[in-house]
Write a structure and sequence with these properties.
Blueprint (H helix, E strand, L loop, with lengths): L1 E8 L5 H13 L7 E7 L4 E7 L12 E2 L5 E9 L2 H10 L11 H10 L9 E9 L4 E6 L8 E4 L3 E5 L2 H5 L10 H8 L14 E2 L4 E8 L2 E8 L17 H19 L6 E4 L4 H14 L4 E7 L7 H11 L2 E7 L1 H4 L2 H10 L7 H14 L4 E4 L3 H5 L3 H9 L4 H10 L16 H7 L7 H10 L5 H6 L5 H6 L12 H18 L1 H9 L4 E4 L4 H7 L4 H4 L7 H6 L6 H4 L15 H14 L2 H7 L4 H13 L3 H26 L9
Parallel strand pairs: 13-14, 13-16, 14-15, 16-17
Antiparallel strand pairs: 1-3, 1-9, 2-3, 4-5, 5-6, 6-7, 7-11, 8-9, 8-10, 11-12
Helix pairs in contact: 6-7, 6-21, 7-8, 10-11, 10-20, 11-20, 13-14, 13-19, 19-20, 25-28, 27-28
Length: 651
């Protein structure tokens, strides 16, 4: 696990580019504090840098890695599993390895198979390859986007990096917030492939971007090599009994956890009170054959705290559990600002701040790696909004009403309190998925907070339609309603939220690698073939997973309904509310708002007054979300535009 950064110019070489590479590496030092390397070809104009977090091949894994003739040069961020098997096969073909790392297999596979090499890779990865003979750069991102990879594609300069801050440090990259992205962030849902910043994009999950120099200019091509695609509604194998799917899920998960325990350092587990992380701990414990170190977050509000159930799970398998208790002082202040600097986009809830604290504690306790439960809800239909669409559009209105009644705590956040629709989504899916409805409602009034000149620029921009336009309709139409909801969520919020400010960015902010075993593509390829009636069975979400993991889960977990992991919103107690007020006063004064140039001072003041006095629970939750995004946008301007990416103080 590491950080990568680089640039390629068509201009004459300047040592300023070397300095910019060093600056980019310094800005992502947290991703790789164990070593640094760079490769610079002044003649071709290519500069590549790498910061290393040593997990496999501790003393012999320096990057960039090159072939003996230097015709291929590569940097990798991530983990490639089953690498020993690949190394053995490649050795039989005469390959001699220069490192002991897992990453090197990618270089030799590319040398033999070209762009098809990615089909042999299993794991979480972002890869940059300079192919000298073909005069091209190749950028690859893993199938679900667990590892980040950002690009600036200019006419004369391109730049790339594991984090936007490293890209912004490269020559020719503008340093400005995107107004369209600001509107999308205010409604909480980003357009796939976009970032908070003008001129910086993401390599989409499961994609390869190739940049070639031809006739003195850059030419860009994009290739999708994998997708989380469901069969058509009548294409499921309904002849297999339930036991077939249960056993298949169990076997694939055992193997996915097995490969993620491979490391030259100890591996622990994140442990919430949900089925997902508890399943990971339950499978890791017998494979490690020693007590697994498990890390749990406890919140100071009973409605959001799952630590009691997590403790029961830890005791049942004999795990060495550590519980981190977090309150207002931990979730706001400097911790909030530092987390946003790592995230490089706004967040609706301080869950990301809580996870930043957790990864910090993991690192302090001597661990660099944990196995996590992210992705389970996407694969096995765990979220309440997926159940809602399954019931509503499958003809079970009574189940949909009951679901709404038992999920009151999430009204105004992940569940809309009233129905919302949008023609672009109705056309795409046949209905507007429940997961985007709360954010449509948010956009309806949050848009009015912008300054007049910004509103004029955004007049013809529809942020809800922009998201729908990035979804391939051929992957949605003709599918079961549950699969339409599941696919669209996975193509947007999984990568844009859960795996960024809820995953890689806050974990790697403390030089700590998380490994989401559910997102192993072997598990995913099985999960997408499971008939919907076994994912949600007789009203129970993730039924097939529950049955597969029944033997390792305490009964309270086996029978418990899905509870989305989130931190208590600020309106739930006065201390949190005051902590947000302090951040608003410090970073959203009228002068700060004017300098950032996005919002109208008086409109924001009026909204903040409504936020302070709102008593309805759902509206108060939604107002908390908008305040978090407003704060985040002003902090992004302060951190990355005004202060040019300099790291804020640690708490």
């Amino acid at each position: 696990m590491c950080g990568i950064v680089g640039s390629w110019t068509l201009e004459p070489w300047s040592d300023h580019r070397r300095d910019a590479l060093e600056r980019g590496m310094e800005l992502i030092h947290h991703r790789g504090p164990d070593g640094r390397g760079q490769w610079i070809d002044e003649g071709s104009g290519v500069a590549m840098g790498h910061t290393r977090l040593s997990i496999i091949g501790l003393d012999a894994g320096t990057q960039p890695i090159a072939t003996p003739d230097s015709q291929l040069v590569m940097t990798v961020n991530g983990e490639l599993y089953d690498y020993k098997e690949h190394r053995a096969r490649l050795a039989c073909e005469g390959v001699r390895f220069s490192t002991k790392s897992d990453s090197e297999i990618a270089l030799h596979l590319y040398q033999r198979r070209g762009l098809d090499f990615v089909e042999d890779l299993r794991g979480e990865f972002a890869i940059a390859i300079h192919d000298v003979a073909r005069d091209r750069m190749v950028f690859v991102r893993d199938r679900f986007g667990v590892k980040p990879l950002y690009l600036h594609l200019g006419e004369r300069n391109i730049a790339w990096g594991s984090e936007v801050k490293a890209v912004l440090a490269q020559p020719g990259v503008p340093r400005a917030l995107s107004k369209q992205a600001a509107l999308n962030q205010l409604m909480h849902t980003m357009v796939p492939g976009t970032t908070s910043f003008e001129g910086v994009e993401q390599v989409l999950p499961g994609h390869i971007v190739v940049v070639e120099r031809r006739n003195g200019r850059f030419e860009v091509s994009r290739h999708q090599y994998w997708d989380f695609e469901f069969p058509e509604a009548d294409g499921f194998d309904e002849d297999q009994p339930a036991e077939h799917w249960v056993e298949a899920v169990r076997e694939e998960l055992i193997d996915a956890v097995r490969v993620r325990l491979e490391a030259d350092v100890p591996v622990g587990c994140y442990l919430s009170g949900g089925i997902d992380s508890c399943s990971m701990l339950g499978l890791a414990t017998p494979q490690q054959q020693s007590p697994v170190k498990a890390y749990t977050i406890a919140f100071d509000h009973a409605d959001f705290d799952e630590s009691k159930i997590a403790r029961e799970m830890a005791e049942s398998v004999g795990a060495d559990q550590e519980v981190l208790y977090l309150g207002a002082d931990d979730l706001y202040g400097r911790s909030y600002v530092r987390t946003l600097w790592h995230a490089e986009r706004t967040f609706y809830n301080t869950l990301g701040v809580a996870k930043w604290h957790m990864s910090r504690r993991v690192r302090e306790s001597g661990y660099k790696v944990v196995v996590t439960g992210e992705g389970s809800d996407e694969l096995f239909s765990g979220y309440p909004f997926l159940k809602r669409d399954h019931f509503l559009h499958g003809g079970d209105d009574q189940q949909a009403r009951q679901l709404s009644e038992v999920n009151q705590v999430f009204k105004g956040s992940i569940l809309a309190e009233t129905q919302a629709s949008h023609p672009a989504w109705d056309d795409l899916c046949g209905f507007t998925p429940s997961w985007i409805q709360p954010w449509i409602l948010t956009q309806d009034y949050a848009r009015g907070l912008f300054a007049d000149d910004v509103l004029a620029e955004l007049e013809n921009y529809d942020p809800v339609a922009a998201i729908a336009e990035q979804i391939d309709p051929d992957k949605v139409r003709g599918r079961h309603p549950l699969d339409r909801a599941q696919y669209t969520w996975s193509k947007t919020m999984l990568e844009g939220q859960i795996l960024t400010w809820g995953g890689d960015r806050v974990d790697m902010g403390n030089s700590m690698e998380s490994r989401p075993a559910f997102l192993d593509h072997h598990v995913a390829e099985l999960a997408r073939r499971i008939p919907p009636r076994y994912r949600i069975h007789e009203g129970t979400e993730k039924w097939v997973l529950r049955e597969a993991m029944k033997g390792v889960l305490p009964n309270v977990l086996y029978t418990r309904e899905k509870f989305a992991f989130m931190a208590p919103p600020s309106h739930t107690d006065q201390k949190k509310r005051q902590a947000v007020e302090d951040l608003v006063a410090r970073h959203m004064s009228p002068d700060h708002i004017t300098e950032a140039g996005l919002f109208d001072v008086d409109r924001v003041a009026g909204f903040l007054q409504d936020w302070r006095t709102e008593t309805d629970g759902a509206r108060a939750t939604r107002n908390d979300i908008v305040v978090n995004h407003l704060l985040g946008l002003h902090l992004l301007h302060e951190l990355f535009v005004t202060n040019e990416g300099a790291a804020p103080p640690l708490p």
